[in-house]
Fold each of these.
Amino acid sequence: MFTLYEITDFADPALDVYARVTENQLVNRADPENAVFIAESPVVIARALDAGCVPVSMLMEKKHVEGKGAAILARCGDIPVYAAELPVLTQLTGFHLTRGMLCCMRRPALPSVEALCRDARRVAVLENVMNPTNLGAIFRSAAALGVDVVLLTHAGSDPLYRRAVRVSMGTVFQVPWTYLPEGDWQETLHGLGFQTAAMALRDDSLSIADPRLPGIEKLAVVLGTEGDGLASDTIARCDYTVRIPMRHGVDSLNVAAASAVAFYQLCLCAGQ
């Protein structure tokens, strides 16, 4: 059973993770066993619990303790629950608390690329995608459109940043993901039997509707950072370069929008 604390002192160190600790401090790379992240809203918190994430504490609007948060709290065991009226929470956090609930959770250990990709047919590779909003949107598309695994380079944003988690609607807990090894990650994927398709605008690129692409047994769809797109050497080392045909002089799509088109055509449709 949880222990309820009504918030009376904003300086309580137990509330630091919700209001005064940065995202990078939450990650706590120097002490990964104590690293945490923040999940926001009942739907997202429930999906994190479904994935086995361990709750540390909860911050919520007082009315939700016996309301829509009750089912969530029943799953969390003996944790501290900090509660207050919404104006107090807004003053504490500095923003309107979306759907009235935040949960601090332990960061799970990440599996290896080999373990995740052993039985996968379609994976997404995100090279240095920096914007947490884009990252969350990509995960939501990946969950909906047939991506088995998401692989990220270390220079990109963190899927467990609060904004990424929120925008993804908790799908970062439903689609398996991990970080690629430093160095030649294409060799790693090729060694696991994958062919790689770079999403890029090149004169020699294939249309995303090319009939050869859906028949590839194991395909990694590679998307690049906002603005610059994929690195030239990444494109050169991919087995295919693929473009999304566009009209009216538009030369590119936001990476999140491009991911949805690519995942639908190369992942979802390929599995039908």
Note: The first helix runs from residue 16 to 19.
Amino acid sequence: MKTKTLIIVNPISGVGRQRRIETLLKQNLNQDLFDYSVRYTEHIHHGTEIAREAADKGYDCVVAVGGDGSVNDVVQGIKDTDTRLGIIPCGSGNGLARTLKLPLQPWLAIRVLNQQCEQTIDSIVVNDRWVVVNAAGCGFDAYIARLMHSAKTRGLAAYTNLVLREYTRYKNSDYRITVDGHEYYRNAWFIAVANSRQFGYNLAVAPKAKLDDGLLDVSILDKVPIDHLGITAPLAFTNHLDLSQHVEMFRAKEVLIEGNADRWVNLDGEGENIGKSVNFVVHPKSVKIYARDMKQLLLPRIR
């Protein structure tokens, strides 16, 4: 029996790689394995509505075509169901796709779907409402996520320029952090709560994180002095941020952050105004996903 699949396309995501998606699907998706249809989102969080409707109708798989925000929208709709998540990365950061080692070229990512290699990963529930599969955070990263949402251009260059522009302006805040019942007080630049290793662009804020270990990885970062950036930045991009003197890391099942002064939180790359108190709880093995079988070649579809 064919896998009943809905492809959800964010037409304005990232850097525009999704524009030829229907042609690429016809050329690369195995028609003998998949019975698929395509829908385009029309407004913010429309992907969640479409994905939830598909899950209710018994679809086997819902594929997000876009960036981490588009993936997050789909996950909100299918979490804790038997519907699997597929990803065709067309965003700018693509943090979850990179962690899963998915190709960033859409036509190759489509061929990953043909492998039908199923994996079950954890998710993070935030304030009993929002779901995160990649990474979340408070402080500077949430501030940048909010600004990127309204930016005219996307991609690494735009992200880097924004970080450099705002770096000196954004100040540390005082936080009370409760990690599995243990309280800590920290003055921090930002706090990341991660399910996977990175935010995107291969910027690894939680180098020890695993998608299916039932734990949250918490990284508390102090503001790095300008003269230390030449050392710290390469550590972040080579998966060794834990070696920096400016970071403190924990692992936990539940984390409460209080004192989020500007009220914004980064949820899978999208800024959301949640409030000054933010609670993160891991939900083990709650999302089924098509991953990549590294032992198989990405063969073209069978004609």
Note: DSSP finds eight helices and 16 strands in the chain.
Amino acid sequence: MNTPLCNFVRAYAERQALRLHMPGHKGRGIAGAAYDITEIPGADTLYRAQGVIRESERNASELFGSHTFYSTEGSSLCIRAMLQLIAQYARRCGRAPRIAAARNVHRTFLSAAALLDLPVCWLEAERCTAYLSCTVTAERLEEFLVRQEEMPVAVYLTSPDYLGNMSAIPSIALVCHRYGVLLAVDNAHGAYLKFLPESLHPIDLGADLCCDSAHKTLPALTPGAYLHISHNAPRSFAEQAEEALALFASTSPSYLILQSLDALNAQLAGAYPGRLAAFLKVLEQCKRRLAAHGFPLIGQEPMKLTLQTRPYGYSGTALAALLEQQGVYSEFSDPDFLVLMASPDNREDEMARLTDLLLSVPRLPALPDAAPVCLPGERVLSIRQAMLAPHETVPLRVACGRILGDASVSCPPAVPILICGERISEEALACFSYYGVEHITVVAED
């Protein structure tokens, strides 16, 4: 597969032109500077693409089987664009832009809902693993939809979630479409799912639109990402995708990130699927060894290794610290979990080293399950009203009864413990304290 954007920038760099355009380094002095350009003639314009960027996006679209658009600002930009597209579609159809969502959304969802003034109704989960995972089943979703006097225009899910749990997208998509509801998926952690021996990508499983963070699980520069729109989605989505992205995007996109997405197409069309299939076997062997030794593993996502650490006698944070002493850095840890993200660019000997290190950790008496239940709070203000109101930051100890003003999160992974606009209860305070939050942003009182 060709790489038109990389080819253009490489030829420009080799020309050694006199650069009287941005950026100020003029192609000299810092790593990668020769290939760091702006929207000069021939380089095309992101979000009004007609040349090399559009050709590269067509290549990505062919690979993913969708209408695919690039983001140089991560899945955060794509989430905002998805909500804008849904809102435009709803208003065009004469419907309220109401979205039903699982509560473990990324904080970007909340800020986008606030900016777009979208009403959000929260789905009741089948089960919740702390605040990070809220599994919504097709059966529970249908029960919710049957009760609605006004049907939401879309359902919004995060799958895979931060712990590697995956929603049953095919059955959920069937329920959504039976009720005339769109399905949008935050697939930030699952770009690689398309390239498994059997695709588990949301678009292939029935989602109408989704976002992928290419940089999280594919060999792309941070924060390269994709907005994917199904060929079965409303036609307006693909027609207005660039406009929706441009509404929130910087007018100075990184051409280094764009080139990494362009170069990635050639890898995805070439050796990457085979490398991924081979590495899956390596990772499965690691998982089997750890499970046999007594480490509880959770999640269905193939490339994520998530340990539920308390039964082994450690907090996730303590186990992460032990690994860090040996030069191994995890993706995320908290009192309950240790999350390790691998890819085919990890070598087999590195995965063996990780496994040996974990197996060398002595097992201790199990720690009691101490995670508080994160219950929904009383809704006092809309997300928009709460986020755009005057705020103040107060110590946790005096926050009971106040209204949460911002998406207070344990970051990463930027999943809200409580939703802004909800009243802070004693139970919510226990959750914040458990996850290390000491101060909290609340709506200012008169």
Note: The CA atoms of residues 102 and 123 lie 5 Å apart.
